[in-house]
Design goal:
Blueprint: E1 13-17, E2 21-26, H1 44-51, E3 66-72, H2 75-86, E4 91-99, E5 106-110, E6 113-115, E7 123-125, E8 134-142, E9 146-153, H3 160-167, E10 191-199, E11 206-210
């Protein structure tokens, strides 16, 4: 962990619930699943099971990333959604505030990633041994010292968006693992999951959920 764990206490915002799935807005600073040790037991999954005992994990967000997550409420839904994530059929979009003025209007970051073993949990670009990682981005706005991007990860590597932004010279603001200097000096990681699109496990129809950025 990059800081003492002090998770938010506000109620979880449930965006959608039916017989098969649960879509919620994970707050910044809350683990998706329990960490190692009693002090890291409080997490989104545990809280959701208090109200929805059948809740099953499908994917994760970093502790410091906020935004939309989908959970399954049946084993069938968990398998169905898990397969969509595995086959990269789920479409995700994030908004990020990054350090510096990003040139251009859109682009693609195609850089393989691997664990930085001596500095875990950090990840790093590894052109020889890394796993493929692809992120598309679009510029929303920029000024002299920062830019607002929409990020579209096409793969789901650990810390992918954070490392890819760092690799192009524009770390995400407030990133205590990867940013340096004034880019670190923010009250949170400026990264939020704002859109999820997938096929509903009940009938295969397209399901789409979105949320307004918090920053």
């Amino acid at each position: 962990m990059t800081a003492e764990y002090s998770p938010p206490t506000a109620p979880i915002d449930v965006i959608h619930a039916d017989d098969e799935i649960l879509v919620v807005a994970k707050p910044h600073g809350l683990l998706s699943v329990p960490g190692k040790g009693v002090h890291l037991a409080d997490c989104l999954l545990t809280r959701l099971r208090e109200a929805f005992p059948a809740t099953l994990l499908v994917h994760r967000l970093d502790r410091d990333t906020s935004g939309l997550m989908v959970f399954a409420l049946t084993p069938h839904a968990q398998r169905h959604l898990g397969l969509q994530f595995e086959k990269r059929q789920v479409r995700k979009a994030y908004v990020a505030r990054v350090h510096g003025r990003v040139p251009g209007r859109a682009g693609t970051i195609d850089l393989p990633l691997a664990v930085d073993w001596p500095n875990r949990p950090r990840q790093m670009v590894d052109l020889r041994h890394g796993r493929p990682a692809l992120t598309k981005w679009e510029l929303l706005q920029s000024c002299a010292d920062e830019s607002r991007l929409v990020l579209f990860p096409r793969t789901g590597r650990s810390h992918q968006l954070r490392v890819h932004c760092l690799a192009i010279g524009h770390p995400i603001l407030g990133d205590l693992l990867y940013a340096q200097g004034e880019a670190r000096e923010h009250d949170r990681l400026m990264l939020q999951s704002v859109s999820l699109r997938f096929r509903h496990p009940a009938d295969g129809r397209a399901a789409s959920f979105s949320a307004e950025p918090e920053f």
